[in-house]
Amino acid sequence: MNELVKFTRQGEVGVITIDNPPVNALSPGVPEGIAAAIDAAAADPDIRAVVVIGAGRTFIAGADIREFGKITSGHRPRLTLLPQLLRIEDCPKPVVMAIHGTAFGGGLEVAMAGHYRLAVPSAQVGQPEVKLGIIPGAGGTQRLPRLAGVAKAVEMCAFGEPVKSQDALTAGIVDRIIEGDLLSGAIGFAREVAGKPAPKTRERSEKLTDSSGNAAVFATAREQARKTRRGQTAPMAAIDAVEAATKLPFDQGCEREAEIFRECLFSTQSKALIHAFFGERTVAKIPDIPKDTPTYEIRRAAVVGAGTMGGGIAMNYANAGIPVIVKEAAQDALDRGMATIRKNYENSVKKGRFSQAVMDQRMALIKPQLTYDGFEQADIIVEAVFEGMALKKQVFAEIDKIAKPDCILASNTSTLDIDEIASATTRPHLVIGHHFFSPANVMRLLEIVRGKATSKQVIATSMALAKKLNKVGVLAGNCRGFIGNRMIHCYGREAQFLVEEGAAVEAVDGALYDFGMAMGPLAMGDLAGLDVGWRIRKEFKHLEKPGVRRPLVADLLCEASRFGQKTGKGWYIYDADRKPSPDPEVAALIEKTAREAGIERRNITAQEIVERTIYALVNEGARILEEGIALRSVDIDMVYLNGYGFPAWRGGPMFYADTVGVKNVLARIQEFEKRHGPDLWAPAPLLKRLADSAKTFASFDQDKETAAGA
Ligand code: 3H9
Q1: What is the model's pLDDT at position 710?
Q2: What's the whole-number mean pLDDT along residues 365-379?
Q3: Which protein residue's CA is at the shortest distance from atom 53 of ligand 1?
Q4: pLDDT tier at 563, thresholds 50, 70, 90
Q5: Distance (Å, whole) CA 445 – CA 472
Q6: Per-residue pLDDT reduced to its tens digit, 627-640
Q7: Closest ligand 1 atom to Cα of 109
Q8: Which residue among 89, 109, 501, 620 is the active-site one?
């Protein structure tokens, strides 16, 4: 029909094959091609039934997400998938959808417009649009409840999680599972149903049930969305659209869906989430490291240190099926580390994430020990000991002696100079930073730190390994704190200044929680352990600039052994269930400290709290970008989304700055500079340049990409 959609005949069955690699997205030409092929099949007297199938690895992964930006910027008219779907549904001959890989978003909407759906056991279906800040826009919210019932449709449309074949069969989305070859199975099925009346999804209503039963479903879903999708608009919008299916006839329901879809598509949240979708994929692309750079094979790993980080890192390897040795210095520390690993896995089994058998397999891959035995066979050794240069160098000198010649030596340092660590070895080209985020078995970020001698092969291996470990690997240059912690230092500093200046601890955390952060900065400090920052501050004491204001209270909390959650007290006081409450003792300590330091106390608004902390991130982010520590602004955003609980629907700190307007951010930073001085608030030169030329961080990335391609 065109180069994206092929039409062939297998006897009395017409076969429509969508061939738009890599994921058969519904790019311009695909929906038109399908509709034209359907028309051709309908008009051909020798054809009695039709099969629609995807070439390559999948059925249809949805609308072409790249087109959305063109629509919102006015470069493309609106998407019109609905009429083509009606052409499929109105085809007088049965249309059988043959699904492998993923039928997501518009892909599932195409499938539901067919008369029957078949799937291979490994296939998945879903309406993941909410993850892009939109809702299904081609009848998904209207057809899915008719096939799967209202509760299942609400769950799928509002929360976006994929559904496996077998569940889709149970729910009524799929009619049959095909074991063996999908195309021949589908052709066989098409012959079975040829000549029989074809059921149209839009005409079905038996699963829409009565409105009193549905009311509870919608109320529960809204409550769940409020709790688990805090701040996001699309999940609520998706529930509204499914509700419309239960109240309006099909055509009017589709009109309502289209209105809601359009509102969502033009929202900043959707732009931010689409930025996040492509960002996650962009960070894997490193300009000076081509895709075909050779990589080392990682078959065996070893970790030094079984503390919180070491244990979490070992779990990552075990989860990916890579055997891993964990070494500790003392038996009790090793036992504690292994007990934590076991407890984490047991919790996952309890929550039904995987079976006991999977847990047993993973535990069997982790080998605890007190010696370096077996390290000589490892393809990678990850150091995860306390954050101190002397100790790290000692460990690297030791493992350098034992490791095989091409073994990668990775440090989980969160702040320290990777070149200095590498200098303790005879192989600086094999040394790299692998900065995991706590809890390392949960957080998706892996900051990969490139030293000056790190080889391209080691970087390429690390990026590939990140993917294998189900992490988002972001490459960072070597500086104190790299991308994430260098920026968080400024954010945390401002949070602490704000409490010294008069904001309550819970007011600072509350303002940032309401902004969308997973947790406030002071609560985050309590969770991570205030002693961690204390140790780092001592390590870098010699670098402090005299006369520059620095936060005063955190050190005092540590001196009083208030290390946060682990000691039951930090910025907050914790009960036995780790529930925090404001502590009057801390409030008094802050007031006394501020008075003694001559800090003026005043009322501080939530808006100022957000601006002081988030713009501190942006300003430092701009410096990091200019220095080349981060490759692109999107790399910084991905660090923040995946490692620091920054809300994805705000796109990350640099994307957020673009949405506020770089000029507006700069103006506010200049006000802060006047009040708090240039040492803390001098605007980053890049920020000024962008503001002066009315540019954005996104355009900075684009210019960089163009320059690299030129
Ligand atoms: C929608 O359908 C709205 C409708 O209601 C209709 C409204 C009218 N478009 O992830 P991968 C690219 S909204 C464009 O690395 P995997 C991706 O960027 C859509 N491009 O592979 C990457 O490019 P590159 C609803 C897409 O095997 C390459 O394909 N659908 C799209 O790990 C490979 O992707 C979704 O939200 C797309 N739809 O995972 C599904 N999808 O190589 C989104 C992928 O240049 N997609 N690309 O970096 C996914 O969830 C995963 O990509 C998928 C494959 C599971 C399909």
Answers
A1: 58
A2: 97
A3: 61
A4: very high
A5: 5
A6: 999 999 999 999 99
A7: 5
A8: 109
Whose alpha carbon is nearest atom 39 of ligand 1? 23
Residue ranges and CATH numbers for the domains of the chain are: 5-266 (3.90.226.10), 301-476 (3.40.50.720), 484-628+632-709 (1.10.1040.50)
63 lines ligand 1 (CB under 6 A): yes
C-beta separation of 337 from 367 below 8 A: no
For the question of whether the overall pTM of this predicted structure is more than 0.85, the answer is yes
C-alpha distances in angstroms, 158 versus 136, 236, 252, 422, 624? 10, 7, 20, 48, 37
Residue 293, classified by CB atoms within 10 Å of its CB into exposed (0-12), middle (13-18) or buried (19+), is: middle
* Residue 494 annotated in active site: no
- Pocket flag, ligand 1, residue 180 (CB < 6 Å): no
Share of the chain above pLDDT 70, in %: 99
- With contact defined as beta carbons under 8 Å apart, do 204 and 245 qualify? no
Q: What is the DSSP string of 287-315?
A: TTB-TT--------EEEE--SHHHHHHHH
Contact 479, 626 (CB under 8 A): no
Token pair belonging to 178: 């095909």
Cβ–ligand 1 distance for 454 under 6 Å, the answer no
For 546-560, the pLDDT digits (tens) are 889 999 999 999 999
Atom of ligand 1 nearest to the CA of 131: 36
When the pLDDT of each residue in the chain is averaged and rounded to a whole number, the result is 95
Q: How far is the CA of 659 from the centre of ligand 1 (A)?
A: 24
Q: Measured between alpha carbons, how far is 280 from 466 in angstroms, rounded to an integer?
A: 12
Place 568 in a pLDDT band, splitting at 50, 70 and 90: very high
Q: Answer yes or no: is the C-beta of 257 below 6 A from any ligand 1 atom.
A: no
Expressed in angstroms and rounded, the spacing between residue 65 Cα and the centre of ligand 1 is: 7
- pLDDT at position 241, please? 98
Question: Could you give the CA distance from residue 350 to residue 175 in angstroms, rounded to a whole number?
Answer: 32
Best probe residue, ligand 1, of 24, 65, 141, 157 (max atoms within 8 Å of C-beta): 65
Q: Is the link from the previous residue into 28 a cis peptide, with omega within 30 of 0?
A: no
The verdict on whether 328 is a catalytic residue reads no
| Pocket lining: 62 vs ligand 1, CB cutoff 6 Å | yes
**Strand order across the beta sheet in which 445-449 lies:** 366-369, 324-327, 301-304, 380-383, 408-411, 431-436, 445-449, 472-476
- Does the CB atom of residue 221 touch ligand 1 within 6 A? no
Find the distance separating the first CA and the last CA of the chain, reported in whole Å.
36
Q: Which atom of ligand 1 is nearest to the CA of 107?
A: 2
**CB-ligand 1 contact for 138 (6 Å cutoff):** yes
Question: Are 126 and 148 contacting, i.e. CB atoms less than 8 angstroms apart?
Answer: no
Q: Is the CB of 22 under 6 A from ligand 1?
A: yes
Burial class from Cβ neighbours inside 10 Å (0-12, 13-18, 19+) for residue 595 reads exposed
- The pLDDT > 90 percentage for the chain reads 91
Angle between helices 633-643 and 697-709 (to 10 degrees): 120
What is each CA distance from 550 to 326, 561, 592, in whole angstroms?
38, 20, 16
The verdict on the CB of residue 595 being under 6 Å from ligand 1 is no
Give the span between the Cα atoms of 693 and 197, in whole angstroms. 64
Radius of gyration of the chain (CA): 28
Nearest CA to ligand 1 atom 23: 281
How much distance in Å is there from the Cα of 699 to the middle of ligand 1? 23
Q: Is 216 exposed, middle or buried (0-12, 13-18, 19+ CB in 10 A)?
A: exposed
For 268, the enclosing helix (H) or strand (E) is helix 268-282
User: Which ligand 1 atom sits nearest the alpha carbon of residue 57?
Assistant: 27
Q: Could you say which DSSP state residue 649 is in?
A: G
- DSSP 3-state helix, strand, coil percentages of the chain (rounded to 5)? 55, 10, 35
Q: Does ligand 1 have an atom closer than 6 angstroms to the CB of 25?
A: yes
Q: Name which of 629, 602, 607 is nearest 684 in CA terms.
A: 629
Determine the distance separating the centroid of ligand 1 and the alpha carbon of 361, expressed in angstroms. 32
